[in-house]
């Protein structure tokens, strides 16, 4: 490798410098390989020990189980035969035969005083003839301490008309030597395969990690303080990591040679004096402004910054910026800018929650400055909470409006196709298709009207167009509009009207829109078989329209929220019911423009009543208000 540095006499060292007897770049890989190999060997040894121990315990349990079964058979037979004296010889023969058949080292029947009345070895029998009375066992039935390789059992007996006795059994455990060697050979084969695989992995990773190992060794040399010029350079044959490392070292050496003298220019924070014209201008800004030095200390803060960060400006100046901007992501970006490891600009949005639970969104932008004026960076803060709320409302409105428009358009297209295909030959089909198309067209017209009204409200351009409104004709039109929808859902739609209705001075289209939204919502959220009642009352002062349903109802805490734009109740039962969340909000705003209001009373699963009240305003007053 050749050095391309100018203005430096640094020469790269040999690419295979050895540290502690290990080739440069190999130490990390070898250490990792040895550690993994030690772990693998430890696991294999532990597996071998556990396997052999498990095998031995299995053999012991099997031998103990065999002895237990034999003992139970002997006890059952001996209790019956020892009840009579003439069966004693048969019992002794059975004990001897059992010991020989099942390879028992001990098999005998003992009385409570230690007298042996039957034994596999006849020479050990204490009495040839059974005694008349048998003493209690007095603790002989307690098991003895187990001996390695020996299974010992003591099983109490109860001989009718005689008394208690004890059957003692013991047997040697024979471990299969060939099984031990077979298991060890298998584990050894597995270990050999694992070590072979580990060696192959080591060979592969050695080529990939040697650049990192070489860099690590170079850093150790630098930390030791004994590194000669060029000691930090590594062979570029190690790959792209080595080339990137050499580039960093070259840049470091260049900066050391060209380090500028310390700047004597005044601090930017001192130049931006609060008492001068520039300071007054900055204090007048609605954006917050912080000026930081190279250590991240605030040299200057304007008034808006103190308001947004809820801190006193005098306390902010001279303190670290991270004390007031505590978000980890922002602190990381700021540290990168101050150190020069990141770009010259970064920005993000920070969320702050006030004591009353409100959330404020602050957009923070950081920009690095020239180092020759003593300032390192500036931070600009701006409150964008209302902007984000408006964006979310607009996005929700567009999504809901798109969904609302798609449904009538789809129905119109489907029924037009049906009309073209089957309407020529079937009068009923043609009539039904035309009715549906007319109904969906009206629905589409109302949705577009809602959107235009919302747009006018947003722009502050919604105006009243008052005129004479014949309430009887208006209500007949509404009843005809909703009759088909109510019949489809098998809902009883009842209009309770007074015998005479006055002529109202109002904006007819907007008033129809408000009442239409109330009746439409009642039908929408009332289940099949329910009832919706539209009750109209009128006196000398006001017109009242109460729409009552026996639908799903509204929670008390949501009864005011449903009049907010784009808000829909959190009841899971309305998740599949289409709605834009603007109908009730629009209806209330229209009625309030008529100096009226809409209120609601509701109970969950019992229904709701929406009451619309509009004063009988003289035409002159209404025109003046418009």
Layout of helices and strands, plus pairs?
Layout: E1 18-19, E2 22-23, H1 27-81, H2 88-101, E3 106-110, E4 116-119, E5 150-159, E6 163-172, H3 177-224, H4 240-257, H5 268-271, H6 277-283, E7 288-292, E8 298-301, H7 303-309, H8 313-316, H9 328-339, E9 345-353, E10 359-368, E11 377-383, H10 385-422, H11 427-459, E12 467-470, H12 471-488, E13 492-496, E14 503-506, H13 508-524, E15 531-538, E16 542-549, H14 583-593, E17 597-603, E18 607-615, H15 619-625
Parallel strand pairs: 13-15
Antiparallel strand pairs: 1-2, 3-4, 3-6, 5-6, 7-8, 7-11, 9-10, 10-11, 12-14, 15-16, 16-18, 17-18
| Average pLDDT rating | 77
CATH arch. level architecture of the largest domain: 2-Layer Sandwich
β-strand percent reads 15-25%
- End-to-end gap: 86 Å
Q: What is the makeup of the main sheet?
A: 5 strands, antiparallel
Shape: flat
How much helix is in the residues?
40-55%
Write out the strand line-up for the largest beta sheet, numbering strands in chain order.
8-7-11-10-9
Task: Report the top-level CATH class of the largest domain.
Answer: Alpha Beta
Q: Please give the domain count.
A: 4
Task: Quickly give the structural class.
Answer: alpha+beta
Number of strands: 18
> What is the CATH superfamily classification of the largest domain?
Histidine kinase-like ATPase, C-terminal domain
Q: What's the tally of helices?
A: 15
Radius of gyration: 48 Å
Ranges with pLDDT <50 over ≥5 residues?
1-21, 260-274, 619-626
Q: Remind me, CATH topology of the largest domain?
A: Heat Shock Protein 90
């Amino acid at each position: 490798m050749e050095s391309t540095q100018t203005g430096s006499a640094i020469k790269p060292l040999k690419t295979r410098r050895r540290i502690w007897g290990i080739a440069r770049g190999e130490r990390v890989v070898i250490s990792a390989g040895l550690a993994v190999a030690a772990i693998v060997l430890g696991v294999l040894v532990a597996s071998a020990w556990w396997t052999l121990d498990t095998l031995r315990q299995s053999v012991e349990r099997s031998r103990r189980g065999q002895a237990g079964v034999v003992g139970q058979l002997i006890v059952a037979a001996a209790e019956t035969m020892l009840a009579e004296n003439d069966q004693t010889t048969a019992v002794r023969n059975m004990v001897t035969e059992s010991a020989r058949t099942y390879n028992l080292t001990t098999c005998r029947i003992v009385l409570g005083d230690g007298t042996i009345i039957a034994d596999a070895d006849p020479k050990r029998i204490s009495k040839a003839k059974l005694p008349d009375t048998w003493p209690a066992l007095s603790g002989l039935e307690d098991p003895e301490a187990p001996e390695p390789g020996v299974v010992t059992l003591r099983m109490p007996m109860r001989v009718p008309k005689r008394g208690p006795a004890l059957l003692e059994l013991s047997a040697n455990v024979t471990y299969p030597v060939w099984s031990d060697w077979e298991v060890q050979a298998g584990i050894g084969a597995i270990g050999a395969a694992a070590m072979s695989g580990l060696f192959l992995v080591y060979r592969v990773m050695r080529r990939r990690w040697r650049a990192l190992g070489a860099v690590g060794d170079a850093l150790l040399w630098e930390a030791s303080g004994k590194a000669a010029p060029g000691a930090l350079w590594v062979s570029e044959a190690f790959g792209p990591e080595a080339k990137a490392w050499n580039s960093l070292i070259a840049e470091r050496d260049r900066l050391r040679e060209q380090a500028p003298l310390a700047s004597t220019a005044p601090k930017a924070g001192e130049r931006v004096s609060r008492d001068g014209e520039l300071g007054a201008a900055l204090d007048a800004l609605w954006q917050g402004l912080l000026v930081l030095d190279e250590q991240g200390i605030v040299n200057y803060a304007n008034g808006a910054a103190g308001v947004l960060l809820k801190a006193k400006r005098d306390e902010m100046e001279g303190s670290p910026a991270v004390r007031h901007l505590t978000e980890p992501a922002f602190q990381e970006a700021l540290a990168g800018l101050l150190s020069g490891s990141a770009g010259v600009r970064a920005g993000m949005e920070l969320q702050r929650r006030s004591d009353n639970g409100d959330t404020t969104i602050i957009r923070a932008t950081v920009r690095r400055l020239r180092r020759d004026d003593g300032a390192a960076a500036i931070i600009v803060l701006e409150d964008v909470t209302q902007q984000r709320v408006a964006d979310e409302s607009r996005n929700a409105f567009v999504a809901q409006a798109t969904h609302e428009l798609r449904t009538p358009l789809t129905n119109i297209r489907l029924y037009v196709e049906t009309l073209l295909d089957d309407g020529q030959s079937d009068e009923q089909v043609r009539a039904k298709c035309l009715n549906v198309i007319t109904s969906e067209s009206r629905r589409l017209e109302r949705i577009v009207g809602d959107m235009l009204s919302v747009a006018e409200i947003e722009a502050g351009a919604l105006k009243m167009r008052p005129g004479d409104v014949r309430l009887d004709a208006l209500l007949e039109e509404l009843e005809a509009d909703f009759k088909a929808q109510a019949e489809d859902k098998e809902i009883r739609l009842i209009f309770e009207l007074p015998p005479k209705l006055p002529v109202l001075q109002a904006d007819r289209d907007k008033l129809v829109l408000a009442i239409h939204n109330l009746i439409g919502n009642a039908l929408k959220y009332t289940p099949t078989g329910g009832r919706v009642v539209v009750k109209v009352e009128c006196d000398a002062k006001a017109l009242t329209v109460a729409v009552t349903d026996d639908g799903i109802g509204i929670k008390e805490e949501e009864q005011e929220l449903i009049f907010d734009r784009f808000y829909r109740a959190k009841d899971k039962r309305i998740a599949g019911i289409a709605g834009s969340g603007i109908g009730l909000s629009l209806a209330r705003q229209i009625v309030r423009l008529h100096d009226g209001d809409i209120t609601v009373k509701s109970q969950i699963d019992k229904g709701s009543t929406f009451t619309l009240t509009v004063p009988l305003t003289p035409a002159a007053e209404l025109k003046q208000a418009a």
